[in-house]
Automatic annotation (TrEMBL):
The keyword Protease does not apply. InterPro entries: Citrate_synth-like_lrg_a-sub, Citrate_synth-like_sm_a-sub, Citrate_synthase, Citrate_synthase_AS, Citrate_synthase_bac-typ, Citrate_synthase_sf, Citrate_synthase_typ-I. One of its GO terms (molecular function) is citrate synthase activity. Belongs to the citrate synthase family. This is Citrate synthase. Keywords: Acyltransferase, Transferase, Tricarboxylic acid cycle. The lineage of its organism: Bacteria, Pseudomonadati, Pseudomonadota, Gammaproteobacteria, Lysobacterales. NCBIfam families: cit_synth_I, PRK05614.1. It catalyses: oxaloacetate + acetyl-CoA + H2O = citrate + CoA + H(+). It comes from Dyella lutea. Pathway: Carbohydrate metabolism; tricarboxylic acid cycle; isocitrate from oxaloacetate: step 1/2. The keyword Protein biosynthesis does not apply. PANTHER family: CITRATE SYNTHASE.
Amino acid sequence: CIDLGTLYKDTGHFTYDPGFGSTAATKSAITYIDGDQGVLLYRGYPIEQLAEKSSFLEVAYLLLNGELPKQAEFASFEHQITHHTMMHESLKNFFQGFHHNAHPMAMLAASVASLSAFYHDDLDVDNPEDRKLAAIRLIAKMPTIAAAAYRYSIGWPMRYPRNNLEYVTRFLHMMFEVPSEPLQLNPVAAKALDLLFILHADHEQNASTSTVRLVGSTGANPYASIAAGITALWGPAHGGANEAVLKMLEEIGTPDKVETAVKRAKDKNDNFRLMGFGHRVYKNFDPRAKIIREMCHKVLGELGVNDPLLDVAMKLEEAALKDEYFVERKLYPNVDFYSGIIYKALGIPTEMFTVMFAIARTAGWIAHWIEQHETPGARIGRPRQVYTGSAPRDFVPADKR
Ligand code: ACO
C-alpha cells in the first residue's frame, strides 16, 4: 500500500471497513436487530407477534407509516393498493423481448426499472404525496409483474389481477390460474405465503436496502432505486440464497450424504458453503428462521406434502449445530434455509424463490427510500477507498511499452 501522504496533500482520515461490518451509514427508525439476542423488531413490534397476528399488507402499512393502521386506515390503504395492481398495458410488450428462458429476477429487475418510463414524468421526489403514490404503485404492481415474468417463462398468457381477492391470494391466482381449470386454492397456501412475506418485509441495512438508499441518495427516482435493490438481492450471498439452498439440498440428495457436505463446507480449499447458514448480524439464531422452521413442518403436514428434502435439511441443521467449525463461527440457519422447502410445497418453482423475497422486501425498500427523503440534510452516499495502485508515473507511448 503506497503512502500517498508523501505524494499528495493529506485528505484527512477515514475508516477502512471492508463489507461495512461496523459502519452505520444512516440513522433509521424502521427496523431494529439485536444479532446477539436474536431479536427483530419492525417499528418496535417483535417479529414473532407480527407473524402470528398481522398480515403482510398491514405490516407494509406499518413499515411505511410507523404505526399499525386503525381499521379505516387499513381499508383505505388496501383500497389504494388494489386500485394500482394493473401494470401499464405497454409493459406487457417488454416481456416479448426477453429470451424464453430468461431468469424471472432478470425480468423483474428490468420491468421495475422500466416503471420509471411510465410513472416518472410527473413524480416529484420532494413531494410526500408523490412519494406515497410511488410506494403504493410499487407494492401493488410487484406481484403482477412477478407473476407475468413467471408465466412468460413457461409460455403461458398473462393473467390480469383479480381485484376482488386479497393481496397474496390475488398473486397466487395470477401465478397459477389457467382458463380451463379455475384455481382451487388451499387457504393454507395463502396463509403460509403471507407469513413468509411478513418475515421478509424488512431487515434494516442489508445489501439490497443499502443499495436502494445509495441509489436513492443521488436523487434517482423510486423505480430505478428499487430496481437496483432487486439486482442486489439476486446474489446467492443475499436473497438468492433461498434458490441456492434448494439446489444444494437437491444436490446432497439424501440424509446420509450430509456429512460429506459439512466436511466440504469446512474445507477452505473448496468454495462450497452451506447455503442458508450464517449471517452478518445474527450471531445467535435468526428469529425468522425459528418461525419458518416451525411453519415448514406445519405447512407440509397441512398440505399433505412429504418432501424428502426436509429430512436432508433437518439432518444438515443437526450436523452443523453440533460441529465445532459452525459453533465457533456462530453459523446458524438463516431465514432462507427452510423458506425454499415451503415455496416448493406451495408449487412455486425454484427460479421464483428470490422473486418472492423481492415482492415482500419491496415494502421495506420503499419505506427506507421514503425515510431517506424525509430526512433533512441527507447527503449523497459516497464511500471512500484505500488506494493500492501505482505511484504517479509518466505516460509511455505505445511503441515504447
Ligand atoms: N458455510 C461455511 N462457512 C461459512 C459460511 C457458510 N454458509 N458462512 C460463513 N462461513 C465462514 C467463513 O468461511 C468465515 O470463516 P473464517 O473465519 O475461517 O474465514 C467465517 O464463517 C465468517 O464468514 P464471513 O463470510 O466473513 O461472514 P459474513 O458476515 O461476511 O457473511 C454471509 C455472511 C454472506 C451470510 C455468509 O455467512 C454466507 O455466505 N452464507 C451463505 C449464504 C447465505 O445463506 N446467504 C443468506 C444470508 S441471509 C439474507 O441475505 C437474506
